[in-house]
TrEMBL record:
One Pfam family named in its UniProt record: DUF924
Lineage of source species: Bacteria, Pseudomonadati, Pseudomonadota, Alphaproteobacteria, Acetobacterales
UniProt-listed InterPro entries: DUF924
Domain of life, source organism: Bacteria
The protein, known as: DUF924 domain-containing protein
């Protein structure tokens, strides 16, 4: 049976404070590894079957990787990529705001506890995301140009401008406004 440490050993295979390029790039081999080792955990995690993991810092981190990151890797371009976002946000709120488990993990690991706020389409969550990521500014890798703090601000700007992420419109069956379509046609990047 898969345990939180199995998830963390896989995701942070180069060390708990070492970033991996595969995390945020399309990498079919990396996605295949996630699918083979952990793909069967996505639905049970989304349905709450693994919520007990959130009682420890490592367990909460592993659960948020399953809820927030793994779907994005395994369901790129499909609605299922966002299907567990609301549950991830609930777990992130408990983990970060109530239990303060973010202070018990490395800065790199901490960023994955904050990503559910960045992935939210609610402005209040975007404001919290930026505040949380700004708290990592003392760590050079986090504050580097195109680092996690920079991306938190970029995501906030998109939500502030559109009230949602336009690149999710097609997978979620939402029509794009002319302004959103123009942004998407121009590259729609963060």
């Amino acid at each position: 049976m898969t345990q939180p440490q199995d998830i963390l050993a896989f995701w942070f295979s180069e060390g708990p404070d070492t970033a991996r390029k595969a995390w945020f790039l399309k990498d079919d081999a990396f996605d295949a590894s996630i699918r083979a080792q952990f793909g069967d955990l996505l639905v049970p995690a989304r349905e709450g079957a693994l919520d007990s993991w959130a009682e420890t810092p490592d367990g909460a981190l592993a659960l948020l990787l399953i809820l927030d990151q793994f779907p994005r890797n395994l369901h790129r371009g499909h609605a299922d990529a966002f299907a567990s976002d609301s549950h991830a946000l609930t777990i992130a709120r408990q983990t970060v705001l109530t239990r303060r488990f973010d202070l018990a993990v490395t800065p790199t690991q901490r960023s994955f506890l904050y990503l559910p706020f960045e992935h939210s389409e609610a402005m209040a969550d975007q404001n919290l995301s930026v505040a949380l990521f700004e708290g990592l500014r003392d760590h050079p890798a986090m504050a580097a140009p195109n680092g996690v703090i920079d991306y938190a601000w970029r995501h906030r700007i998109v939500i502030q401008r559109f009230g949602r992420y336009p690149h999710r419109n097609t997978p979620l069956g939402r029509p794009s406004t002319p302004a959103e379509q123009a942004w998407l046609d121009a590259g729609g990047g963060f």
